Amino acid sequence: xxxxxxxxxxxxxxxxxxxxxxxxxxxxxxxxxxxxxxxxxxxxxxxxxxxxxxxxxxxxxxxxxxxxxxxxxxxxxxxxxxxxxxxxxxxxxxxxxxxxxxxxxxxxxxxxxxxxxxxxxxxxxxxxxxxxxxxxxxxxxxxxxxxxxxxxx
Amino acid sequence: xxxxxxxxxxxxxxxxxxxxxxxxxxxxxxxxxxxxxxxxxxxxxxxxxxxxxxxxxxxxxxxxxxxxxxxxxxxxxxxxxxxxxxxxxxxxxxxxxxxxxxxxxxxxxxxxxxxxxxxxxxxxxxxxxxxxxxxxxxxxxxxxxxxxxxxxxxxxxxxxxxxxxxxxxxxxxxxxxxxxxxxxxxxxxxxxxxxxxxxxxxxxxxxxxxxxxxxxxxxxxxxxxxxxxxxxxxxxxxxxxxxxxxxxxxxxxxxxxxxxxxxxxxxxxxxxxxxxxxxxxxxxxxxxxxxxxxxxxxxxxxxxxxxxxxxxxxxxxxxxxxxxxxxxxxxxxxxxxxxxxxxxxxxxxxxxxxxxxxxxxxxxxxxxxxxxxxxxxxxxxxxxxxxxxxxxxxxxxxxxxxxxxxxxxxxxxxxxxxxxxxxxxxxxxxxxxxxxxxxxxxxxxxxxxxxxxxxxxxxxxxxxxxxxxxxxxxxxxxxxxxxxxxxxxxxxxxxxxxxxxxxxxxxxxxxxxxxxxxxxxxxxxxxxxxxxxxxxxxxxxxxxxxxxxxxxxxxxxxxxxxxxxx
Lengths: 153, 566
Prior knowledge:
Distance between the termini of chain A: 32 Å
Number of domains of chain A: 1
CATH architecture of chain A: 3-Layer(aba) Sandwich
CATH class of the largest domain in chain B: Alpha Beta
Shape of chain B: globular
Largest interface: A-B, 40 and 46 residues
Radius of gyration of chain A: 16 Å
CATH superfamily of the largest domain in chain B: Methylmalonyl-CoA mutase
Strand content of chain B: 5-15%
CATH topology of the largest domain in chain B: TIM Barrel
CATH superfamily of chain A: Cobalamin-binding domain
Mean pLDDT of chain A: 92
Strand order of the largest sheet of chain A: 2-1-3-4-5
Radius of gyration of chain B: 24 Å
CATH class of chain A: Alpha Beta
Strand content of chain A: 15-25%
Strand order of the largest sheet of chain B: 5-4-3-2-1-9-8-7-6
Largest sheet of chain A: 5 strands, parallel
Helix content of chain A: 40-55%
Low-confidence stretches of chain A: 1-8
Oligomer: heterodimer
Structural class of chain B: alpha/beta
């Protein structure tokens, strides 16, 4: 069996995998669910965490599922607090290679600080699903490219 | 039977319409085609070029409309409506700690608001104390933090609870917040029969939409019914439930689903209360509703009218209610938060004004108008004042409050009212076949419908089938304008620290034995299936905190976790 398998063509490239996470305790899950479905329709593998997740749970799920991108949705106004914790946690477990994006009711004045702590993209209300999917795809591609470089070196 | 149109007249009109469509309209279409191939409301109801008596042929005035204050209350629940008293201007408010909120309430009262409405922060909404690890970073942001009776006392410092009515948007912890309120009113010397206001206390829509559930569906409903039963018997002016379509709509449903799911929730509650041995006319007059007022103007007006007629029919024909009040759908309305845009935020003032107009033409009893800065944060004083002024302009300048149900009799509005009703009945039939809304919720049926509708809407925006000014048409190139919005500033970390400090002090000063006994008794009552309300009231008077009471109940009832479907 094993010799047979080895003669088969190389396994097709794995689809990009995204974790859609509701960080904090707000229940506004309309956006997260719409994005999850849109990403699925755009060809991604999508894992949705459900609401009321802690940074630890999100990081654990991201590692467990080996995702290419973490997409966080927060509409409670507590995004600065939770994103700082999440980014710290990722650093702690050495998973800063997973790009993190954020969507929700985020005041424009917070974007700079969010980028500074390592959030790659901040999607304001009204951002098109197409734009979100494209940007996430780019980040996923970038992550895979870096991974393959690391493997070959 | 009062048929509006005779057969011959309708036939003549029908002929004229046909002729117009065959001979006149095509000439115009040749010159300029219409903007869209098909025009639809937000509920995907196709709408025609024009409506005539032929569209509401057989319209029976007395069966469909009646007069204001008469069955089936389509035109309004009161005979004089806003000619006697303008709707209650009730602004959903609260942020930070009780001190900040007390100041905000006084500011709004000073500027003419006529009813209070408390917005709670997330920890309070799901029953966590501010020092619970899950509450970290969330205290005081989306509303006020109220973990103890002391906090409630500060909110109402200098506000006479015998003179104001207060809405509290609270669900699983509703018994606790109501107990805080009643206990503080008592301290102010207000007798029970003068305590007025509303607890949202609508558990089913938590699973469908708002997602601030704590207990699983069955105990969640049980607790809510406890509150209603206790309230009807003890504080007769209180509205113990606000059966809410608002959140269902905000979560992405359309107008028809909003009506159908909300009324189906209401039907479930009526059955539950009757099953407790209560008489329908004992509790039904205290049931109240809460609707969204969205941007598709006529559909919203028609929705309010249809819902009112349906509820009256259900109460009279299904449940045999005798008192007119039992058949009244009294409701609060909030303009649609989800219609606000972060882009060109000042435009939200205009959206809110149109939505408020629809609510008033739909006969609302009270109204909250959103502030233009709410896509970003809880409103600043400046923004909240404009929102309040929007209602005052409607009430006192435009004249729309002077004639009752002024759109009644519009061929289009009557046709659309019937159409929404008919479509909503189909949903209700389906839910009835599932065994009622509690069963439907357990099966995830309305949840799935809402997710599907929200995705469909988003796709339509994306494909340019639905327009949102500033988002997919008339888009600004730079977003500098957004930076100019003066947002409410407050030191959240300081407020969180202060709230933790206060709860620590409350725990330190209370009578330990009395407190422990109160919680033990509450647990035992919950285990035995007794009405928990008296025990909750006793516990808050012994200075038990919100989190302690909710944790005691969680031990008995369990905690709900939603399957992560999308």
